[in-house]
Amino acid sequence: MSRFVVGTAGHIDHGKTTLIRALTGIPTDRLAEEQKRGISIVSGYAFLDYKGEKISIVDVPGHERFIKNMLSGVSGIDLVLLVVAADEGVMPQTREHLDIIRLLGIDRGLIVMTKCDLVDDEMIEMVEMDIEDLVEGTTYENFPIYKVSGKTGQGLDEIKDYIFSQYDESLDIKPYYPRLYIDRVFKGKGIGDIVTGTLEGADLSIQKPLCLYPFNEEFRIRSIESHGESTDMAQSHSRVALVLQGDKKELLEPGLALAPKNKYHDSRSLIVEIESLEGLEERLLINDSFKAYFGSDEFFARLHHIEENYYELELDRATLAFYGQRGILRQMSPVITLGGIKVLDSRPLLGKKNKLRSVKQLRDRDFISRLNYIGWKYPLGFTMEDLEKEMVLREDFLKETLEKHGINLVVQGNRYFTKSSLIRQQEELIENLQELVEDDPIKEYWDKEVLRSRFYKTMDREGYERMLVKAQEEKSIDLDGRKIKPHGFKLLLSPDQEKAKAKILEIFTKDGYELPSFNEVKSKLNPEEGAILEYLIQKSDLISINSEFFMEKEMLSCLKNDIIKLGKGNKTIEIAQVRDELGLTRKYIVPYLEYFDRIGVTERVDKVRILTKEYKNG
């Protein structure tokens, strides 16, 4: 059985706090100022005992000045008590609170008409009609209306019975990992640093360390208390207080979130769907002064329209974020609620085009569509931890659901792929290779390690090599050892580039074997000619003898034949013999012979060289 949190909503001074005290016997106005003024400033907390369990109740402020505190309190509730006073009827905050709970997706509850002892039957009937007009056409038009009095006790038992019946009907959900949005931080005398909040996601063990999002700081739980009782296992959907131990306790503050490390994204950029309140749609497009509310925190926010009611929501700082998360968007001036936020991607890809592509795939919300989107989003593959965070489902439930749908993920190295992610992987490989072509257009091929270091640093070696082999099999790339290029790619030089090529080759061949130094040639070329020089080297039209000399390939072939001929005519090859035969100085002879040693034409024996067996007999 999932646990249960009940929350109030309604206008100031409509009897919410009195109602909670009458139901539970617990006063929720704990601040001296609240008791003095007779209004709630921050959310108060109480509980109902039922079948050995405790049902948490949150009493939220009704004054418009404390809307942030109201939003903090109402976040995470399962059932709402919408309170309307019989002596005043529907008021401005009644309407705004109703909008907020609807936009947050809270679709279970009842309507409580309080202070019925203060008015006659005619007034009660008028207020009841007022309430029916308010909820007409909404989820709440079928909510029962209970007429109560916190002073006389009228209707209290009926409300309790309704809450208990809803608790009994509450369905088990697939738990994820626990998360707690902090709404209070204080020091307990002789105890330490205490935080409180409504626990969501899953039960929380005292043994499990928590991470403070978005700071990535770890805290250990010294003790847990829920509704005045110590426990080693806090129940999800209940109010809890945690005594924490950690090195950075000064970071703890209301609005931040605690959850296991790496189980949620911390993000400040989100793709969201916004449900705007009637008549306020245009304000989302013409006004960039917003506040967004998630959990127990508020953020300055900007909206970037993608299409229709889909936006990128940019927060002023990072927060714990997850798929399906609900929030509220308000205009800063004048201060009004504009609409509800639903997070569709808590860590979207960069770039306008990617966000537009994302939205087109995020419209469908079933499991398979979501999985295909994740596959598309992770062209390099995803880990099981990635999949958990994107789906907000634990690994055991994910595997169960994958099996149910007959889906087998492809494993490459330490990553998983869907069919769509493998397709996207290949598409992105071609895009990345094409980017190399555009950045350096005078090349015949690229080194595959350059491609990897630029685009695939996080990809394991096995996965990278498999990706290239698959691309070669599908004839989308040409792969030759370390050399890689788009399939069928051939560089066609322009007339001007052909002239530069001829000029450079002429420089390297005009003096025969007496070569100019590479740096000397390069210093005389303009940038365009310098690019052609690099192209000739890569294409092996110019071959490196050493760092100083490069020789045209046909000339090098002639030099090789001259050395072989000299070696076959003599038992040994000496520098003096080469000098006499070819008319070269030691400046050239030594590097040439060292080059032929390296490529296996000659080998050095003491101070002379001989042909290797392959060339001596060949």
Q: What best-fitting shape do the alpha-carbon axes yield?
A: elongated
- Annotation field: number of helices: 21
How many strand units?
31
CATH superfamily of the largest domain: P-loop containing nucleotide triphosphate hydrolases
CATH A-level architecture of the largest domain: 3-Layer(aba) Sandwich
Strand percentage: 25-35%
- The residue ranges in which pLDDT falls below 50 over 5 or more consecutive positions are 31-42, 62-66
Structural class: alpha+beta
CATH T-level topology of the largest domain: Rossmann fold
C-alpha end-to-end distance: 86 Å
Q: How many separate domains make up the residues?
A: 5
Strand order of the largest sheet: 2-3-1-4-5-6
Rg for CA atoms? 37 Å
Q: What number is the mean pLDDT?
A: 87
- CATH C-level name of the largest domain: Alpha Beta
Relative helix content: 25-40%
Major sheet attributes: 6 strands, mixed
